[in-house]
């Protein structure tokens, strides 16, 4: 008698499993999809390609990156964490430039489309500025164009991304023409940062930001 009940129970469970799986498959068949157009519009594509050329192999350019993939709440209790997390869950960065080795976020790029600021756009800008400021991520705004000067973009990004290969970089002093050498600041606001200085110091005191980029095509 017990064996009959066991068999019946197994059959019921099996029927329930098959029915549930069949219904789920039928629900999926009711949804039909199609491929959308380009992920980025023409202006965004122009900036994307310009950023690729500007950073080269020194960075990875990602587009339409969810804020939750870049930053995380630092709330101490669950309620605050939930509120802070929900606040950024539906927003994204236009472009994020990452370290090519670790994919750690280095710079956020926001494209200003030039349209009139409505409440939604203002709120989004305030949110992005607050998030980047509190997380210590540089935020750069770029006005929409149909073409961009790569050299100027490189100079804009050079303060945040290492675009120089030390073994290939040779510089000469713009005052006396002597070779320049790389040093590291040992004190002050720029402690720990690299910079170029004239090899004739102290006779010549000319210095340059280590990551400043000069390109002849923009002259």
From TrEMBL:
Domain GRF-type: 173-219
Keyword Zinc: yes
The organism's place on the tree of life at top rank: Bacteria
PROSITE patterns referenced in this protein's UniProt entry, alphabetically: ZF_GRF (PS51999)
UniProt-recorded Gene Ontology molecular function terms: isomerase activity; zinc ion binding
Keyword DNA-binding set for record: no
Keyword annotations from UniProtKB, A to Z: Isomerase, Metal-binding, Zinc, Zinc-finger
Protein name: Zn-finger domain associated with topoisomerase type I
